[in-house]
Amino acid sequence: MSLQTKPLSAGKIAGVVYTFPKAGDVLPMHTHTEGDAHITIVARGKIKAHGNGWETEYSAGAVIDFPVNQSHEFVALEDNSRIVNIIK
CA–CA separation, 39 vs 24, rounded Å? Predict the structure, then answer.
C-alpha cells in the first residue's frame, strides 16, 4: 500500500488529507466515535467506500457524511485519487 497521509489544520478545521497514488490503494476499515467522526470530500479521482452491507463509488466533488459508529473503508479506483477527511 502506498497511501500517503498529511494532517490538515486551518483555524478550527482539523482533519487528514489522504492521497492514493495507485488504483487499489486502501484506507483500511475503521469506525469513528462522536469525538472523531468526519465528513469526507473526494478532492480528485474516484474512490469506492464500503462497509457492512453497503458499497458506493464516488468521484471528485462528492461529499460523504458518515454516521458515528459506521464502519467504512476506502479503495482508490483511479491513480492519484485524493480524499479530505474533516472532523465534525
Answer: 22
Contacts with 34 (C-beta within 8 Å, 6 or more apart), sequence order: 68
For residue 26, give the 3-state DSSP assignment.
strand
Question: What is the structure's pLDDT at 1?
Answer: 57
Which class for 33: exposed (0-12), middle (13-18), buried (19 or more C-beta within 10 A)?
exposed
Please check whether residue 46 is in contact with residue 22, taking contact to mean a CB–CB distance below 8 angstroms. no
Chain-centre distance for alpha carbon 37: 12
Strand pairing of 81-87 and 13-20?
Answer: antiparallel
What pTM did the predictor assign? Answer: 0.90
CA distance 45 to 52: 24
Query: How far is the C-alpha of 37 from the C-alpha of 1, rounded, in Å?
Result: 24
